[in-house]
Amino acid sequence: MKMRLPHAFLILFVAILGSCSKESLDKTNIIEAKNALEVENELLDIVNVHRVSLGYTSLELSLVAYEYANDHNDYMITTGNISHDGFSSRASSIASAVNAEFVAENVAKDYVSAVEAFENWLASSDHKKTMEGNFTHTAVSVKKDPQGNLYFTQLFYR
Question: PANTHER family, from UniProt (predicted)?
Answer without folding.
Answer: SCP DOMAIN-CONTAINING PROTEIN
